[in-house]
Amino acid sequence: MASQQFEPPSGTRENVFAQIREVFGRYGFEPLQTPAFERLETLTGKYGDEGDKLIFKILRRGEHESTGEADLALRYDMTVPLARVVAGYGSQLPTPYKRYAMGPVWRADRPGRGRFREFAQCDVDVVGAASPLADAEVVCALTDALDAVGVRDYRVLVNSRQALSGLLEVYGVPADLGGGVLITLDKLDKLSPDKVAAELVDARSLVRLASPKVGEDRIAFTLSLVRGLDYYTGVIFEVVAEGMPGSIASGGRYDKLIAALGGPDVPACGGSLGVERIIGLLSDDQGDAHRIDVAVTVIAEDTASEVMGFAAQLRDAGLRTEVYLAASRKLAKQLKWAADRMARFALIYGASDKEAGVITVRDMDTGEQAQVPTGELAAHLTGRCAPSR
Known about the structure:
16 strands
């Protein structure tokens, strides 16, 4: 028991963050972090009555503490803080502006499976683009991130706030009752989409073209989908997965939010992944499998500089690569290290390899080995690692 306290806790949180970050970067999203807290007036009135009740408020300091008044609040999500930044500094940002953010958010919710009061979100947003291509790219970035971390069995449910508003108008629902009707609709299991499905055909087709992995079997028009937050104005979506209540990702278009915070009237859309829910879907094997692509062994001191060069080439090619740094030069021990790191491949470079101008590539799943010319190493491994990434 004494040594157990020094072992890292089980889970794959950092690994999940790293893989999501890598996917977002490939799409050209740039990092932008905002403070953990915002002015209370910035957050209230943006999430709807139910959402406003879940905001964690921060009491005023000093002489105001006894009054119970609050002027700050912990951020409820990443979207409203981004809108506040764009409202104040949008002229200094490129157009369109693509950003990602990762970090904790807080909601005064009732804890349960997949539901926390503090949890991590990974967001992508596109500001300044009204095109459905922006909506499609957000969905594709999120689904590619899910694929990268090992979540496969999911579906993307899509609807439109504009379609819902039109439906309420057709059926004569008064504007002051519309919000309540939509909340009720959000709880329905199924409703015929025939009258409004045409409005989503173009956006749905763009998603399929942009990412073949999101095809007919993974994306579905869902009229009962509402998304409870008030700031959505157009396309909305949720990603659901078997075995996890609620959604593991969600988002939509929020064209009026920046203007509501005093900024310019610019279009925007975005989406968010819930890290804790994603981790909850991963088995131990899924969560840790192939945490690195290539483990590089060092079996002779006089080859150390060369194997470091091989590792640099592979990292430049986008492969997750680690070099064995311990003192032992026993190959068996280093291959065990590679297995413990759950590497996809291990590299072995001995005297005979050096003389022949090749490097031995060992498939850690099958045990098969191949000798690859050193000049072709990056191309060889990039092609073989791609399906597992």
